[in-house]
Amino acid sequence: MPRKLLFLIVVAILITVPVLLIASDDVEDPKLAVYVGPVDAERPMEVDLGRSKEVFVNTCSKCHSLKRPLGKTKDRAGWEKTVNRMNKNNKKRFGKEIPPLDRQEIVNYLTAKNTFEATCSKCHALSRPLGKTKNRAEWEKTITRMSKNDKRRFGEPIPDDVQATIVGYLLENAGK
Ligand code: HEC
Ligand code: HEC
User: How far apart are CA 143 and CA 150, in angstroms?
Assistant: First the structure.
């Protein structure tokens, strides 16, 4: 094979591989308000925050009270930064890292909590939803109605992925 052709092939591979990697990253992170973990074909937006909450409670209460993270409001990028720093704190103190999947679940849970708080505090106190207990179908119905309230008042419905995130969060914190 002529050296020039070989060179071109190598360059083509060097360019394509990173592009493919970036593209597959996009598939894994569909920019939901919450990363959904294993996606169920029936409910692609489904969010199971049960395990996430459990991992959060167990992992983040080892060195300080949960009030420390629960009292903060951050977006996903902000929580990723904090959880990565906590991972370093953990390594320094206990000699091991917080497993990557656990870190992801914790970021999901805290992002979901802040998404719920930002979306559902615009018209009334959060105690309104948090004072109720409802099952999945009931929360879905309420949130669909709130989305209509939102559209009437502010011109925009609550996006589907945000609704799914909030249903997941409320099932863990005001579910039955
Ligand atoms: C190994 C001990 C340890 C563990 C485990 C730990 N933290 Fe921390 N955390 C600290 C220390 C030390 C500080 C103060 C210094 C700092 O911010 O790094 C802190 C501070 C914080 C703060 C306040 C500063 C900020 O950036 O807002 C938040 C929020 C927080 N932690 C969240 C978490 C979360 C979420 C987890 C679970 C992933 C966690 N912590 C687990 C040791 C820990
Ligand atoms: C645009 C304003 C607005 C937003 C945003 C909003 N609500 Fe409401 N909410 C209302 C109004 C108005 C009522 C009373 C009338 C009704 O129930 O539709 C209400 C009542 C409620 C009730 C009591 C009635 C019931 O069905 O139990 C709950 C619970 C509730 N909201 C939860 C939520 C949740 C969860 C969110 C976030 C997804 C949210 N709200 C966002 C306006 C809003």
Answer: 10
- The predicted model scores a pTM of 0.83
Kindly report the protein residue whose alpha carbon is nearest to atom 26 of ligand 2.
142
Q: Has residue 32 been placed in a domain?
A: no
| Structure confidence at residue 25 as a pLDDT band (50, 70, 90) | very low
Q: Which residues line ligand 1 (CB under 6 A)?
A: 59-60, 62-64, 68-69, 72, 82-83, 85-86, 89-90, 93, 106
**How many folded domains does the chain comprise?**
1
- Within a domain: 5: no
Q: Ligand 1, residue 71: give the atom nearest the CA.
A: 29
Domain assignment of residue 160, yes or no: yes
Which residue matches tokens 């999945």? Answer: 136
Residue written as token pair 């394509």: 16
Residue 44 has pLDDT above 50, yes or no: no
What does the angle CA 149 – CA 150 – CA 153 come to, to the nearest 5 degrees? 85
pLDDT beyond 50 at 17: yes
* pLDDT above 80: residue 159: yes
| 176 within ligand 2 shell (Cβ under 6 A) | no
* 86 CA from centroid of ligand 1 (Å): 5
Range of the domain at 161: 40-174
Residue pointed to by tokens 């009270």: 65
